[in-house]
Amino acid sequence: MSRFLTDRIALITGSGRGIGRSIALELSRAGAFVVLVGRNAGRLERVREEVLAEGGRAEFSTFDLFQLGRIPEFLEDVESRWGAVDILVNNAGMAPTAPLATTSDDLWEQCFRLNLLAPEALSHGLLGGMTARGFGRIVHVASTAGLRGYRFTSAYCASKHGLVGLTKVQAAEIRRPDVTVNAVCPGFVDTDLTREAVQRIVAATGRSADEARSLLAAENPIGRLLAPQEVAAAVAFLCRPGSSSLNGVVLPLGGPIGHD
Ligand SMILES: NC(=O)c1ccc[n+]([C@@H]2O[C@H](COP(=O)([O-])OP(=O)(O)OC[C@H]3O[C@@H](n4cnc5c(N)ncnc54)[C@H](OP(=O)(O)O)[C@@H]3O)[C@@H](O)[C@H]2O)c1
Q1: Mean pLDDT of the chain
Q2: Catalytic-residue membership of 156
Q3: Single pTM value for the model
Q4: 39-52 burial by CB neighbour count: b if 16+ within 10 A, else e?
């Protein structure tokens, strides 16, 4: 891979496992210095070691993104330690399931805080600097749940639809040609988050884990679960210097999504 992100600093939330880990490795392979963010220091340290073992550069900062009011202070700390952030990947997220009728106020609030308000606050805190420096890439990891409805995921779907809307507004308001905001919308990906969904289906329906997994895979038009690396490749493409004409793109991964 060509090192098209050499000397760029990339902050990736939720990078201790799953899709975020793959994005961190992919951006590092493209030359970026990656700043890993999550709550679990042990997992972040393991990803940092993976990056270093490949010859990349990485640091991590533990932070709980539910603490929206502390995000400006968190960003100040990151930039004073490692430098101005050129690339922000808003990947951390949660995907609880519950029928709409029993989705609690708490669940609505948590989903909106983590999946929508934290990405907004992080972007808000970094876009000014990106604009002043004349280069920036923000990629939101939304979901096909930001494009269509899935049963029993009301708070998740609504928050991801919000994130897609945020992408479009941020892109429309940007006034610098080399600063972009885009979103990727993966279908079901083979990560712990999906494995947890499989366990919930097994518990609720008595189906086998294989059956539950096949049900989720069948929801993807491509007919299989995506690999985290496939999401990472799309994110890296949006971050390329040559991708500056891609602004406000909402990219479905795993096949075309119709409207239910
Ligand atoms: N897996 C899928 O099928 C799929 C499909 C479409 C979209 N997505 C989206 O892709 C993103 C990543 O999904 P994934 O499957 O990789 O999920 P995952 O394996 O559950 O990883 C989520 C990451 O988010 C971090 N995180 C969660 N709450 C946090 C908080 N309060 N503060 C900081 N970090 C937090 C977690 O780290 P800590 O626990 O260390 O905090 C973890 O590293 C999510 O936004 C998800 O909605 C996933």
Answers
A1: 96
A2: yes
A3: 0.98
A4: eeeebbeebbeebe
